[in-house]
Amino acid sequence: MPFRERYTGLINRYRDRLPVHDDTRIISLGEGNTPLIRLNNIPGIIGKDVDIYVKYEGLNPTGSFKDRGMTMAVTKAVEEGSRAIICASTGNTSAAAAAYAARAGITAFVLIPEGKIAMGKLAQAMMHGSVVIQIKGNFDDGMRLVKEVAEEAPVTIVNSINPYRLQGQKTAAFEIVEELGRAPDYHCLPVGNAGNITAHWIGYCEYSSASGDHVTEACAFCHGQCRYAGGAIVGNRPKMVGYQAAGSAPFMRGAMVDNPDTVATAIRIGHPQSWDMAWKVKDESGGWFDECSDAEILATQKLLAENEGVFCEPASATSLAGALNDINTGKIPEGSSIVCTLTGHGLKDPDTAIKQSTAPMLTVEATLDSVKTAILDNMS
Ligand SMILES: *Cc1c(COP(=O)(O)O)cnc(C)c1O
Fold this sequence. Notes:
40% of the residues lie in helices and 13% in strands. It has 15 helices and 10 strands. Helix 4 packs parallel to helix 5. It is globular. The mean pLDDT is 93. It binds pyridoxal-5'-phosphate (PLP).
């Protein structure tokens, strides 16, 4: 068998584009390099001639894109001598923080909203040995507390306000351009804190600039972690489209939302931390924000699972739900190439999936006859 180089994670793969040194100890679980899956059936179902790809970030080591940012954030925390990290989380950040801290041999403290995180994510935080602090409040309360406590205790914040997070997450855009040979026309993402939409834009800008440096104004917010050279853009860049859950849509309201609510718990965020950057991303890219109802989000999660074999969590389905709405109205025209980020794996939140499942679940006697009857009655 021919020798193929072992994949050892996104920092090693994109070392020259990330803020690491030759002797930096890399904390990695082999994150990144996720599949870009072309939808074969859904364009036909909606009767539109569009090229839709889903970037299946649920296949990262802890089941969400948060691993891309966490490998960078924990690598730098360790390099800077930190012994403990802390985050507020709707679930996936805590799962990633817990796992990468375990890998690094440091402590993770995670603040989660009591009763509002999906079961799989809680299991991960607990299993990886992090200190789980449930707070009687929502994500936004947790985020405020994390910022306050980090002023008084020796802990490194690994939420997406940590600029290394966005540096790691920008690599998803690199992978997409390398695989398609160009950027897509539209890139659609679910938006919570809006770190990921910002990170993707940084990645697309950096990759399409002649100098190899990135040229987005969002860079001005990166606290010096990015190289802001202002070189000419030579490659194409997508319009960035951010979709929110209707009950948790500050970008649609144009103001912070105090009591966000949605079945898509990963984006149940009313006070986005990357507010200014995300508006810049929208303006620079010529994209827009829109919202989807919980019913649309769940229906799309199911559509994707049943027709393409791809299982994502509810928040993730928001990108495709929004894209399908905009394809239907023609805002995203036929003939377009579209990438939708599926931010997390469906197995994260089995409760919501089972609750909305309508697939037949039969209980029969353990006899050949009854099993055969069940099969013949349900052939399609
Ligand atoms: C974190 C997360 C989001 C939101 O990403 P932001 O960078 O906060 O906008 C969306 N979906 C899932 C599954 C997530 O874990």
